[in-house]
Amino acid sequence: MTINSELASQHLETGDRLQQSGKFEEAIALNKIAEVYYDQQKYVEAIASCYQALRHQPDFAAAYKTLGNILQAQGKIDAAMRAYSKAIECNPNFVEAYVNSGSMFYKQGLLDDAIMYYHKAIAIQPDLAAAYWNLGKILEQQGRINEGFFYLKKALDLQPELAK
């Protein structure tokens, strides 16, 4: 989805006005605007929208996850990890934050931590193919071929297009 800057500005202004009215739905709207900016690689605007959403709703896990994604895209791994941790703190069953944390641990070479987070994601959402796939790849990398194969097969059973 592409949105022009003028329209995005109008959305932000609307979000600011609605934020002041104290409605949670508006924090959701601000987070969606942040996601649009993120998709456009307009990171400054995306971060500003996340912070607006969080000022309105300080325990809004989705906004922390979006913020983590933006920071990760900028290569700010530690800050992204803090955002994902805050998302999990706000919502201990937020599976996307666990998967994203697992990916961040993997990128840092902290494979045991990544494995733990993927297991948590699977425990919360047993049909999440991406978590099985990522877990399987890490286990293969560690030389745990049989275990890795089990998780990769499970991922493909759930989402066959992963093989492509």
Number of domains: 2
Number of strands: 0
CATH architecture of the largest domain: Alpha Horseshoe
CATH class of the largest domain: Mainly Alpha
Describe this structure in a few short sentences.
The chain has 164 residues and is mainly alpha-helical. The chain has helices at residues 5-20, 24-39, 43-56, 61-73, 77-90, 95-107, 111-124, 129-141, 145-158.
Question: Keywords, please?
Answer:
Serine Threonine Protein Phosphatase 5, Tetratricopeptide repeat; 2 domains; 164 residues; mainly alpha
Task: Give your account of this protein's structure.
The protein has two domains: 1-92, Tetratricopeptide repeat domain (Serine Threonine Protein Phosphatase 5, Tetratricopeptide repeat); 114-164, Serine Threonine Protein Phosphatase 5, Tetratricopeptide repeat (Alpha Horseshoe), CATH 1.25.40. Helices cover 77% and strands 0% of the residues. It has helices at 5-20, 24-39, 43-56, 61-73, 77-90, 95-107, 111-124, 129-141, 145-158. α4 (61-73) packs parallel to α6 (95-107), α6 runs antiparallel to α7 (111-124) and α8 packs antiparallel against α9 (145-158). The radius of gyration is 18 Å and the shape is elongated.
